[in-house]
């Protein structure tokens, strides 16, 4: 049950001063709280004996009030320390979690659902933070504080009465062991269901246009109702076990009161304790009600925190598929050339090779065009340079250095990448473009926009550069999103620019303008372009045609036309389509 505290040992060691002070003051408060009942008991005994005076009564009242004020002040300090630590560990865990996600490769996100990751980053981390705050409070109160009160009851009043009153306590311990295991198992299932619900919400919101287009609103509503019903059932399963805690403890506390009161009255009549002792004892008995409840809360929160920490550790314990070697090579001269030697590659989730025997050589400043049928491996070939997946067989060399020996930071610092699916952030056009070059001025932004042929569209936006693009760029058209993404890549002015079918949503005239701008602006720098529209790569120094992962044709535009193969056939078809459309 307490494994969650052991696994969080790094945090307690880091914040040992905070927790040492907080726990010390918490225990001190527990000891000080024993004094008012004892003082009240002594005052009642003096009243019964008739020896009470006005001065002694004022003394008792003054001491009790002073103690309460002192306890109030100390309580504020320990609560600030313990619950401040709860907020601190939440911040640390969430930062670690997000930083870890940033190191993960695409295969990790293929295996893990976004909604489940969101659940772990929110609910699970919050459950763990509660463990180091409220959990530490219940741990101390259910052990140290309970022990102190029991000792006070025994030494200051009567051991016989104390032993009789605590007879029901073992029943709580037995019940808590049973409830704790049930809470752990059911809470894990409830959190998994919450992750499923998050996934469903994300899919429904992102795909709302498709859902409406196919008139599937009612079906989607039913699907969501089913999944929320599943979340409800599993959380109710947790609640049903959770609901047993308080009645069990109340029953045991009630038994303690009955035993304590009955046997206490007997001892008073036998003159073994005084009436003041009995009143003090009952006050002490009332003080152990919370520690008894704390036992239930402790089991509950530790099991929830343990289950949540297991889910978090499962994610953060996953190692990225691609990491830097212990002794990487620093390519200070930059990417002077790119070479692929007999490269064969297969995605981790694939059952067949996605690239087979690829041989390519590209000098610095050259442009490579990659064309082929849908699914032929164009994107896969370009992504080899990003090193997002473990390399297959063969060698990928940049400046003669195997790509595995180059650090990911240095490799990615050379790259500008515009994928098929444009990813824009829920910010302004300006901020999305500045993502490529932090704090870039308006002059540079406008140069990048002009290179992407977006200057005319900018005037149609409500607030120009400050127009918010919405989530994933929902307020922009497909072509506009592509050109904002291109602007973001152009402003970075990378050594290697990878355009993965990044011109598919623009018309032929705009495409020709962008390609011409690329030729002028990127002279002396390497560019790789994959496309279905062959006019985008006519200017390339080298063009390769892919089919089922193989290079079937290669050469310049003119050389490929002379081969009379797939490239010539596709080029003629597109020329006819262009003539007909004109």
Average pLDDT over all residues:
85
Query: What structural class results from the helix and strand content?
Result: alpha/beta
Q: Give me the CATH fold name of the largest domain.
A: ABC transporter transmembrane region fold
Number of strands: 10
Note the overall shape. elongated
Radius of gyration: 36 Å
- Poorly predicted parts: none
Task: Report how far apart the termini are.
Answer: 74 Å
**Total helical elements:** 23
CATH architecture of the largest domain: Up-down Bundle
Largest sheet: 6 strands, mixed
* Order of strands across the main sheet: 6-7-8-3-9-10
What is the share of helical residues? 55-70%
Tally of discrete structural domains: 2
- Please state roughly what percent of the residues sit in beta strands, choosing from under 5%, 5-15%, 15-25%, 25-35%, 35-45% or over 45%: 5-15%
Highest-level CATH class of the largest domain: Mainly Alpha
CATH superfamily name of the largest domain?
Answer: ABC transporter type 1, transmembrane domain
Question: Your description of this structure?
Answer:
It comes from Paenibacillus agri. Residues 21-304 form the ABC transmembrane type-1 domain. GO terms for molecular function: ABC-type oligopeptide transporter activity; ATP binding; ATP hydrolysis activity. The protein is an alpha/beta fold and 582 residues long. It folds into two domains: 3-316, Up-down Bundle (ABC transporter transmembrane region fold), CATH 1.20.1560; 337-581, P-loop containing nucleotide triphosphate hydrolases (Rossmann fold, 3-Layer(aba) Sandwich), CATH 3.40.50.300. It has helices spanning 3-7, 9-14, 16-32, 35-49, 54-103, 106-111, 114-132, 134-157, 159-165, 169-206, 208-213, 217-269, 275-287, 289-316, 378-383, 408-414, 429-434, 442-451, 455-458, 478-492, 508-521, 557-563, 566-581, and strands at residues 337-345, 355-363, 367-372, 393-398, 401-402, 415-418, 496-500, 526-530, 542-547, 550-555. It has a six-stranded mixed β-sheet with strand order 6-7-8-3-9-10. Strands 2-1-4-5 form a four-stranded antiparallel β-sheet, with no helix packed on it. It is elongated and about 120 Å long. The mean pLDDT is 85.
